[in-house]
Amino acid sequence: xxxxxEGSELVSKRVTKNSFRREIINAWDGxxxxxxCRPEKVTLDHVxxxxxxxxxxxxNLVPAxxxxxxxxxxxxxxxxxxxxxxxxxxREGVIRGWLEVPAVSPS
Length: 107
What we know:
Elements: E1 3-6, E2 9-12, H1 13-27, E3 43-46, E4 61-64, H2 66-72, H3 77-82, H4 89-99
Antiparallel strand pairs: 1-2, 3-4
């Protein structure tokens, strides 16, 4: 098991990963970044898919409900999003702004 030091504590990789996920989900108030629903179980989606060079960093991950995550798959996010019934220009702006957030290591 891998550990990292946080402050003066040794924190397990699992705790660090869960904290990282919670930070992203909480920043979006538990809502899907794409459709705006508040799913019971939230997944994290790579806005720029890993298959297209996206990274697993805070600035490239958004919470997504399972239907949005599965539907988007590895498509171009902007093309996919514009074709969705729930498309919202305001929400697109928020997602684009999130991508501009400097990527940080999980805290």
